[in-house]
Amino acid sequence: MREHETSDSSFDWMLRAKEQLYQTENYVSVPPALVITDERGDVWTLGFQYGPAPRGEYAFQVLRNGHIVGEYASRIEYRGGKLRIFTDQGFKCWTGRLFI
Amino acid sequence: MREFSVSIGGSTLANQAVTLAFLNPASAPNPNIEILRYWIGQSANATSAQQRMQTVTQVSSYPTLAGFTPAKLSRADPNASVLTSNTSGPMGSAGINATAENGGAKSIIDEDVFNVVNGGLWVPGPDERIILPANVSATGSGFGLFLPVAPGSLVNWAWGVRYREK
In this complex, is the C-beta atom of A61 within 8 Å of any C-beta atom belonging to chain B? Predict the structure, then answer.
């Protein structure tokens, strides 16, 4: 696992907007999208630090509003208003507090 | 591990096709450039719209750019990138946000489309990374992150390319 100088810093596009202007449509995934904005206005994306990955893929830290949530995933998906990530342990769904 | 980032935010684009980032490897025997990821996003508006994007290579008549010094990602790396800031894209240089494309032919590596409200992110799988060899020709061959058509809104764009020298 490598530490990058900017791995825990925040870019503007990672952060929660001051005003909820937009909610991502269903069936959007990161990647190829850069961010997902959920119904709470939280912005989800993949960070820069590598971690445990599903076979044949790279996984990166999952960021919520630019903050690390403690999970590594190769993609983030928004399906039917539910957010889930694909990790080395399979899919995990966001409960509003944690991934299970 | 020598890794670097060319990244900018809050930028205003020219109202035309624009090379967002341009990396031209140095002449051999300098390191090759391995592209680790690139991304494009904007924070100006929340109106859904599709935007074309391309990755390209180019061997002549490079764009006129804003020079950019790649940022070092490894704290312990004593060396700067072999790519240095330059506004005209020669071998061994990096630049961003072209103001003129100057007519050089571009060879497309990948073409894609993203929704401007979601942005675009390319993260290759282990076998999909793009490697730009150190240049052996006189003029070099550069890599560009390119918008082939101007976006509807030109302000508050952010993008970046991360690469490894190896």
Answer: no
d(CA B81, CA A30): 29
What is the full DSSP assignment across A28-85? EEETTBS-EE-TT--EEEEEEEEE---TTS-EEEEEETTEEEEEEESEEEEETTEEEE
Q: Is A19 part of the contact surface with chain B (CB cutoff 8 Å)?
A: no
Contacts of A13 in chain B (CB under 8 A): 9, 41, 43, 119, 158
With beta carbons under 8 A apart, name residues in chain A contacting B81: none
Q: A70 in contact with B at a CB cutoff of 8 Å?
A: no
CA distances from B36 to A28, A75, B52 (A): 22, 16, 21
Strand-strand pairing, A59-64 and A67-73: antiparallel
pTM value is 0.89
Residue A13: phi and psi, rounded to 5, are -75, -10
B2 contact residues in A (CB cutoff 8 A): none
pLDDT digits 0-9 by tens, B111-147:
999 999 999 999 998 888 999 999 877 777 899 999 9
